[in-house]
Design goal:
Length: about 500
């Protein structure tokens, strides 16, 4: 069927979406972003046949050989970054039915094992954003929507709106910009707007903010639609408490901002089939969860006691994760509540040192694995009774959803996606966890004692575990919302 004015026929309703991200499972991961960028496009593709969604990523030097050996070279070009002229290779790879494109430039992406944290990150991801658009002249793919994620891809809508890329191919493209965490904005010296991006002086104000070049600000101003990863977070970032300085810009653009709660991949996060856990189980074989607890206690050198409530954390340890609330209370829970505490993660030295202290003082009741291991994390989810997530801020959070899937009852603070995904057992209509509102040691402590008291009644606790395991955290509802957004953009 013929296209009219560069827009697909309303009858076909076929939409081509290019999903641009700086990381994705199974190729690279620094946290939850990679999980979302893996599972969301896959679910959309599987569920909606009218949407051809593909993912584009940098070709980092640490791509595993099992993937690298099967990359197919598509073509190459050169990218202009002001006075620089940089090589850009495009590779293609199909993984479990999903097509991925990789942007190759060894100077920018062939580094050590870290994906970010370099002095030239602004230059690296300005290049990537331009390469995403330039690659459309190489790949055989007529794009309708580019779905950008976080500051690393936020210049894609800027380059489109400021006329850096023009012509029929680009004029019809709509952009979605998703803010996964507004704390990371891509702030660089203001001179990058001319020295690096080569923007016309008319458009330098698009990025200028608080005497810096702010990539995320540019994405917010120029994208056709702004999304956050939960409805509550979409409201929170309009305030100075949560927006890290961008609240004025967010409020001015609130007319195009929506929040959609993330989901999790229920195939990879399934205690019934997970190859990592000690013994597989589901809601019909809940007794087998006890075996996971016993085996983790043995592996960690804890007392093998199924009646000792096991509290858990699987997270990085920045201050906003609420680790200071845990630090202020955990020793009391160990001494007075007889709990066991297990955690895996890494972060601020203050918290790492505290966890080392717990390890050494209470070796039969506490074990913390410093560093990050998905395998240990999965074992902890499967073994633990109660999952702690008392975050000061949390755009969405996935751990509370994964913990629920593995039968670990969550305790969360009512913020961001935690508020949207976990309701208190005591609320009208019932809930699926324990929640508290104020960021306060006393409020957190009270919630934990509630859970510990409920844990003593084994029959009632089993009912609570089944409630949290039955909660639907799949991408079904979320993917439908994304589909509607893509379709609305094409209709405009």
């Amino acid at each position: 069927m013929k296209k009219v004015s560069g827009v697909k026929s309303e009858e076909t309703k076929n939409i081509n979406v290019l999903f641009a991200a700086s990381e994705s499972q199974p190729f690279y991961s620094t946290g939850g972003l990679s999980d979302v960028c893996y599972s969301l496009p896959r679910f959309i593709k599987k569920t909606y046949k009218q949407i051809d969604i593909r993912v584009i990523l940098p070709l980092y030097g640490n791509l595993a050989e099992e993937y690298k050996k099967d990359l197919k070279f598509v073509g190459s070009t050169y990218i202009n970054l002001a006075w620089r002229r940089e090589y850009c290779g495009v590779f293609e790879y199909t993984y479990k039915g999903m097509k991925y494109y990789f942007i190759d430039n060894e100077r920018y992406f062939k580094r050590d094992s870290n994906l970010y944290g370099y002095d030239d990150d602004g230059e690296r991801f300005a290049f990537f954003s331009k390469a995403v658009l330039e690659s459309l002249n190489i790949i055989d793919y007529d794009v309708d929507v580019i779905h950008c994620n976080d500051w690393q891809t936020s210049l894609v809508p800027v380059f489109l709106k400021t006329g850096v890329f023009f012509g029929e191919k680009y004029s019809k493209i709509k952009t979605v910009f998703c803010i996964h965490n507004i704390a990371y904005q891509g702030r660089f010296n203001l001179n990058v707007t001319t020295d690096l991006l080569g923007l016309d002086k008319r458009y330098q104000s698009v990025l200028e903010y608080d005497k810096d070049a702010n990539f995320m600000k540019g994405g917010v101003l120029c994208a056709d639609k702004i999304l956050t990863v939960s409805p509550t977070y979409a409201e929170e970032i309009k305030t100075s408490e949560y927006a890290n300085g961008l609240d004025k810009i967010i409020r001015e653009n609130s007319y195009k901002i929506s929040g959609i709660l993330n989901g999790i991949d229920e195939e990879t996060n399934n205690p019934k089939t997970d190859p990592v856990v000690y013994k597989n189980f589901d809601k019909n074989t809940l007794e087998d969860k006890k075996e996971n607890k016993r085996m983790l206690q043995r592996e960690f050198g804890l007392s093998e006691d199924e009646n000792a409530p096991m509290l858990a954390v699987v997270a990085r340890f920045p201050n906003h994760k609420g680790i200071d609330l845990i630090k202020a209370t955990m020793e009391k829970f160990i001494v007075e509540g007889g709990v066991q505490f297990v955690a895996v993660g890494e972060g601020e030295k203050e918290f790492e040192d505290y966890f080392k202290y717990l390890n050494s003082k209470y070796p039969r009741q506490a074990h913390i694995s410093l560093g990050f291991s998905r395998e240990i994390g999965k074992k902890i989810y499967a073994a633990s009774d109660i999952y702690l997530m008392p975050s000061k801020s949390e755009p969405c959070g996935l751990s509370q959803m994964v913990a629920s899937r593995y039968g670990s009852v969550p305790i969360v603070r009512e913020t961001g996606g935690l508020k949207d995904s976990i309701k208190d057992f005591g609320c009208e209509g019932g809930g699926n966890g324990y929640t508290f509102n104020r960021y306060d040691v006393g409020d957190f402590e009270y919630s934990v004692w509630r859970a510990l008291n409920d844990f003593k009644d084994k029959a009632e606790w089993r009912k609570k575990v089944l409630i949290v395991m039955n909660k639907d955290f799949s991408w079904k509802k979320t993917a439908s919302a994304y589909k509607d957004i893509y379709e609305s953009l094409i209709r405009e």
